[in-house]
Amino acid sequence: MSKRDFYDVLGVSRGASPEEIKKAYRKLAIKYHPDKNQGDKESEEMFKEAAEAYDVLSNPDKKQRYDQFGHAGMGAGGGGPQGFSMDDIFSQFGDVFGGDDGMFGSFFGGGGGRSRRSAGSNIRIKIKLTLPEMKAGVEKTVKYRRMVQAEGVKYATCKQCNGSGTVRRVQNTFLGQMATNSPCPVCSGMGKMIESKPKEANEQGLISQEIETSIRIPGGVAEGMQLSMNGKGNYGPGGGAAGDLIVLIEGIPHDELTREENNVIFHLWLSFTQATLGDSVEVPTLDGKVRIKIDAGTQPGKMLRLKGKGFPDLNGYGTGDQLVVLNVYVPTKVNSEEKALLEKLADADNFKPSAKEKSFFDKLKDLF
Ligand code: ZN
Question: 180: CA distance to ligand 1 center in Å?
């Protein structure tokens, strides 16, 4: 089953503000909420689809990744919102419907007393890749430090919320009784508080640890892209969800080849005689050397295309090419013997460009 575009799912434009995205999601969540559509499978699917779209578009990192890579980018690094559970969806509601108006709680009899645990923060690292690695994809092992739950931390149940993590407030209004759930202010929604902890642990019961993890980087990534690995960031306090590891891709320049979107550019310099008489020449590609044929009478500025020697498109839309731009080297100094030979050719008709050829050269000049 192919996935619908997240912007289409929420019915917002690509330029929609966070506020518009939240509003659109609220509307859909109310419309398709399971409490209102008991047992209706289709509503449940719509509900989940909207929640998944909101999860991505409301998170700046995920949104940026989605805008760049589409759905393909969401699975990179083993993360992504696949397998979105109802619990995940309800945990979003604290942000969407919580806060000042608490309307979700009142519409649906209280989101179920689910506690909203604090999530751990994200960690950002950089990875340097060569052009061949960006083309073929690569598995990299990285080491970094993250905050994890310290051993030996003792917790006590929060007395304020009795461990539920939420406090419920019932108000009498002209519509009748309205109940609102909000995170417990004493334990910040954890439902428990630290009673004692080892001295190495910080106030949140976390401790810094070096970890080593392996990251699968898909072929086709480019400099500046970010991959996000869910749950590889800092742990949240008290068993809250871990943040993400965000990996920024940096490029290592290649000696001879440059990248332009999914194409590879190579400038090949030919001698005057090679261009005139033709030759067979080896050129570097990202997969090693390739021999190409230079036709007799090749003009500077001509471009040869090595099909499929570029980068694969991350979204699966084909593969780029290598473009070989041909340049002709004009000697900057000649000895007396060479000079005498060239002077013999100076008046040869074949050495003078015709009017037709001149206009062809002018067009090439505009291209490069
Ligand atoms: Zn509490």
Answer: 16
